[in-house]
Amino acid sequence: MNYTKLLFSLVFSLVAFAVFGQNGRQGQPTPPRPVLQQPAPQQPAQQRPRQGQTEKVPVDLQQADSLIGGNFNGQRIDKLIGNVIFKQKDGTLYADSVYQYKEKNVLEAFGNVRINQADTVNITGQRATYNGDTRTANIIGDVVMRDPRMTLTTPSLDYNLDTRTANYTEGGVIVDPENRLESRRGAYNTKTKMFDFQQDVKVKTADYDIKAQNMRYNTLTKVVYFQGPTFIEGQQGDLYAEEGTYNTITKISNFGRNAYILTDEYRLGGDKLFYNQNTGYGYAEKNVSLRALKDDVTIRGQIGRYWRDKGEAKVYGKPVMETIMEGDTLFLSADTLYSREPKGAITASMIFAYPNVKIFKSDLQGKADSLSYNRTDSIMHMNVKPVLWNEESQLVADTIHIQLRNQTIDRMYMYSNAFIVSEDSLKNYNQVKGRDMTAFFHDGDIRRVNVNGNGESLYFALEGDTVLTGMNKAICSDMILKFAENKLKTISFLMQPDASFVPPHELNEESKQLEGFAWLSQLRPTKQQVLSTQQPAAVQAPPVKKEPAAKPAGNKKAAPRKKNRQ
């Protein structure tokens, strides 16, 4: 009887060895292994899936060199060794060895693990745990995930075969033909081809290095989506935004929230920002700020445009320019402000303002139809009915040029029909007119004015700044006016003048004015007027959605003010 049992045991062992361990005879191909299928046991009624539920699909063994089955720690485990292949629906798992927990429907795979889904997604690693019920896999150890559009490497990866999504939390690097992306955490949807990156995100393209905390990337369209502070560094300029998109193929950016372009010459920012790196054209909208870095000049408005290759920028929507002069801020407003960088040695760095130019500085105010500022030579040109006010003095001419030195007014040239009026303590108007004038400044105050040609003057003589003693009237081709405490003190005649003194009782309104006299204090701009903003003008916009422009507010005339025009 014992011999009979021993004989059956030997026969069973030989059969098992032939089925699972045979490698084929030497020199001959290995015949295909038979796939043994056993009828699935019928589920008890209480374990069968209810109506509307999806029945679980078993994980089928396709191949293995050997199998060792048994109970380990109270669990039924099959140990499959050598060229192991399991399949479930469109997913296939390959490994050197696999532990199959049949009661849990779980596989533990070891060595050269590979998961393939629908012949499009391939994931490799050293170890993996696969749950057949949830169709999820956790792969660890030098994980590489590939689909036709990208390659992901990471220490560990969770992959869901039903949703076809992958997640990593220990850092990952994504490479496609155009870009390299990395982050601490990330998720990839193989259906939508969309990556979600979080924490220490870095993107390297042929033209830019991008850094962010949260970002999305479509491997199909090659578009990067930003959420949160994002820095983009490039050879031809840097970009910053807190939301928006960047197309790594077309190199077109659409940004929002505190966005800006930074080049060697300019910093252009706004709540909305469009930039085409190929053409070098940028467009900003809402709360626009354009800063010329070399001169520390800032222009603010509602619409801004930038042409990188031309070195030109324009700001619309009641823009205001700010620059520091004499330790004080000079504000300049107009309907349009235009900045141009020099091209070659023969051109200058310029700012143009037009029309409706207004200037405000604590000790200098002005208006004109147009203005140009040569930043290379530090000369400001005011054209078409320019008027300037310096404390109690008013300066008018057909054209006014202001020469700056070390960001301080040094000289002022008044060409054609120059006229200076200075108001004294008794509301009299001292007047000087001539063909041309040159005014000299010191610490922002007028100290001397040279009158060149066709000079005429009216000067009221006071006693103790309270009593009028008469009026001096003179005609002389050339004169020199000297000021103190921003008031006209003396007039010197370089040639013999035709002069007269008129006592107070002989004065009338006509005799108190030279021909062409006009006191224009109602036009003198205040700081509030210069800084006031209106809705952007109706201008043609690039492909950035823009709100309808509102009608400009009506102009208000300011009452005459003397000092502290804040």
What does this structure look like?
The chain is rod-shaped, with a radius of gyration of 42 Å. The protein has a 40-stranded antiparallel β-sheet that branches. Helix content is 4%, strand content 57%. By secondary structure, the protein is mainly beta. The protein has a domain at 390-526: lipopolysaccharide transport protein A fold (Sandwich), CATH 2.60.450. The chain is built from two helices and 40 strands. It starts with a helix and ends in a 35-residue tail after the last helix. This is Organic solvent tolerance-like N-terminal domain-containing protein. It holds the Pfam family OstA_2. Keywords: Cell outer membrane, Membrane, Signal. Residues 25-57, 529-566 are annotated as: Disordered. Residues 1-18 form the signal peptide.
The CATH class of the domain at 390-526 turns out to be Mainly Beta
> How far do the termini sit from each other?
119 Å
Report the sheet-strand fraction. over 45%
Supply the helix-strand structural class. Answer: mainly beta
Q: If helices are DSSP runs of H or I spanning 4 or more residues, what is the number of helices?
A: 2
| CATH topology-level name of the domain at 390-526 | lipopolysaccharide transport protein A fold
Shape: rod-shaped
Name the CATH architecture of the domain at 390-526.
Answer: Sandwich
The oligomeric state is: single chain
The low-confidence parts are: 1-54, 534-566
Largest sheet, strands/sense/barrel? 40 strands, antiparallel
Taking all Cα atoms into account, the compactness measure Rg is 42 Å
Mean pLDDT: 82
